Amino acid sequence: MKAIVFGTGSIGRRHIGSLRQIVPDCEIIIVRNGAHEDDYSKQIGAIVIGSPKAALDLRPDLAVIATPSALHIDALAPCMMTNLPIYLEKPAVTTNSDISSISQLIANRGYDAPSQMGCNLRYLPAMQKTYDLARSGELGLIARASFQAGQYLPDWRPGTDCRLSYSADPKRGGGVIFDLIHEIDAACFLLGAFTDLHAFSARMEPLGIRSEAVATLILRGETGKPLVTIGLDYVSRQPLRKYDIVGTAGTLQLDLVKKRMILDTAKGREILSQDPADFDVAQTYVTAMSEFLNAISTRQSTSQDISVGLETAALAIKAKAAL
To answer: What number of helices (H) and strands (E) belong to the chain?
Structure first.
C-alpha cells in the first residue's frame, strides 16, 4: 500500500501511525514545498515529494490530508480529480467557495472513491451509546442540549508559541469554531439537522491571538426542537468536553474528560458507563482508519464521507459569518 500525506504536524503523524499500525509496510509519501526532508521523514523512511502532481504521478492508493484547515482545498481538489480515496481532517474546508468547488467535483467529475472525515469522536464507544439513546426515544422528546469544549491554547502544543500557530490566525482556519468543530459535528450526529443558527464570539487579549478565542452558538432543529447551545473556548485551564441532552423522559450527561456517562430519570440516577475503553479517544483514530482502509478494499462507503464533512463545515462557516 502506498499513501501520500499532506501535513505532518501532530495530527498528520498520528494518522501515519494508525496506517503503519494497521499496514506495517505501508509506503509513506510526504508532500512538502521544496521536498524538504527532516528527522521525522527519515525516521519513518518516507519519500518526500515537492508537489501534489508529482506525488499523484507515483500512483498512490490513498491520500491523507492534514494540512492547516484553510489549505485543505489545495490538496483535496487534485486528489479528487484523480478519484483517489481520501482521509480528510476536519473541518473539510473553511469557505463557501471551497464547498462549491468540492460539490462540483463530486457532481460533475463523478468523484465516488471511498472517503473518510476526521471527526473521530463519532467512533468513541460512549458516543455510539449516546447516539443510540438519543435516537431510540428512550430520552423522550428531546427539548434541548448543550455541547461544551475548551482547553487553554498555550497548553495545546507544548514548546511552541501559540501566537504563531494556525489556531491564532483566522486566515489559516484558526479560531474555536473551526478548531473545535467536533462539538458542531457531535450535535449534528446525535440530534440531526439544524435550520436556524446564531453565533457570538469574543477575543481574549491575554492570549495575543487574532482569531476568536470564545464562541457561543445557538441552534434550532428542523421541527423547532431541540434547542442547542454550543460553547467553545481557548481559555479553560483544565480540558473540558461535556455534552448534556435533556429529554422529557431523561437527561443524559456525557463527560469525555471525566470519562463518565450518566442518565437521570424519574426513577433516579444511573451510571451508564465509567469504563475507560468507552472513552479511549486514541483508539478512535485507529478505528476510523480501519474503516477507511476496509472501504477501499471493498469499494464501499464509510459512515462519514466527505459529503458529511461538507455539511458540518457549512454549519461552521455559517457560524463564522454570523459572528
So the answer is: 10, 14
